[in-house]
Design goal:
The structure holds two protein chains of two kinds.
Chain A (H helix, E strand, L loop, with lengths): L4 H11 L6 H22 L10 H8 L3
Helix pairs in contact in A: 1-2
Chain B lengths: L8 H9 L5 H19 L2 E4 L1 H16 L11 E5 L26 H8 L3 E6 L33 H8 L5 E5 L6 H7 L2 E4 L20 E5 L2 H11 L17 H4 L8 E5 L9 H16 L3 E5 L5 H18 L1 H6 L6 H11 L3 H20 L7 E5 L19 H9 L3 H6 L3 E8 L5 E7 L5 H14 L9
Helix pairs in contact in B: 2-3, 5-6, 7-16, 10-12, 10-13
Classes of the chains: A mainly alpha, B alpha/beta.
Chain lengths: ~60, ~475
Amino acid sequence: MAVKPQDFHTQLLAQQGVALPPERADALATTLAAQLQTERAATHALAFEREPSAFIRVLEGGAR
Amino acid sequence: MSELLALSATELASRIRARRVSASEAMQETLAAAKRAHARLNCFVRIDEASALAAARLADLEIERGHLRGPLAGVPMAHKDMYYREGVASSCGSRITRERPAPATATALRRLDAAGALQFGVLNMTEFAYGPTGHNYHLGHCRNAWHPDYLTGGSSSGSGTSLAARANFAALGSDTGGSVRLPAHFCGVTGLKTTTTRVSRAGAMPLSFSLDTVGPLARTAEDCALLLGVLAGQDPADATTSARPVPDYVAALARPVKGLRIGVPKGYFYDGIDASIERLVRSSLDVFRAQGCEIVDVDVPDIEPWNQAATAVIAAEAAALHADWLRERPQDYSDQVRARLELGAAVGATQYINALRLRSHALETWLAGVMSQVDVVHAPCVAFATPTIAETDVGGGPKMGQVLAQVTRLMRPVNFLGLPSLAVPCGFQPHGLPCAFQLIGRPFDEALLLRLGHAYQGATDWHARLPG
């Protein structure tokens, strides 16, 4: 049976011992969905091998 | 206001060195100004009068004997209350840490101490530095020195407004999503967001270990240069600090700016901007043009995903750090911070990691595109007229996401890229509140930003104006 995103997040937080106030569940689900959608579009073509630690190399290499 | 209080930190340090002013005299006047400012602006968490006066007397004795601790000898400073001093509790703007003594002193404070700066207090800030407006529901909202009904910006709210009120000579802030530059803009002071890894974060309260940076707020770019020279450099206590040598930032200010290429973004930064803010920010370009800089329009890539990715990284990392307290003491958070931490607890591992994977790609794109055409990028800090504290008092309610996103929109992408950015006052909005532009540079190019900021402030007096 499909779980509504609001309920999913409430359960996810409950498993971490955090009680999500019901009045915030909708906003949380909406915000996360928007973030995920934007991120998916931005990362879908990233090289398979790219990893987070590459950032420091680019930062150091990007100096004059 | 006395002549002494109107001096910059650089000017005061020079007068103390020359024994034209004593450290005790400077401290007495600063303490009196701090008490006056706090009564109106709620900008201090604590003022340590007795120990500050004792430290100033000691500094005077040392100077009389010909011993000068460093370039900041005798200069009174108060800092955002999230820089730990051994054995002392830092509130971090919260209810939770205010009785938790720090195990060690922050490297930033140790370096300022060694340079002779005299800390006389700690400053109000947003709870756990997790908010861009300056509201604080535990300590009381911090108020803008230009009009106490208006926003200070955050999270380094007390740093910004104490400087604007001339009740402090320089302050540490921290910038994870705009927390140095926003108070600089809203309060009319100068603020430097440093390159990621340039300044040690050891002993500074963490919010997001990927994005946190330590930086100064001060009255001038010259003061920021003086402080950065003291603060920057590798630190064994913070393994992430860069081994790159620290340049002489103050000496570099003297170099001419003629011929430098300043980029003006065509998109994103000016989308939907308030007309009066746009006019002030664009007018500041005339000053650089008159000094021989070349102003170049530049296309910018699609930045919004970087903004969203930064938001996810901060939320996830903050939620991990706060997991125990969020579980055990949720009632001790304000509604807004609690709501944001809850959101972070729901960010998935793949979303978080992909946001971090995107970071190097974003920086490569920015460097190869925008920064291959220009030396720095010039942009607004915020796109709307400064609102009141009441207008932005959204707590953790349904308007929270929209309001906070609007405030941080032009800030967060710079944090995501890890780049340095200097906020410089450039005039006043029609309702009398200040406005600043930001200069965004290549990695570790703080010297160039400070040089341009110094040149701008040599030709204008916005940074020297005093609240009525």
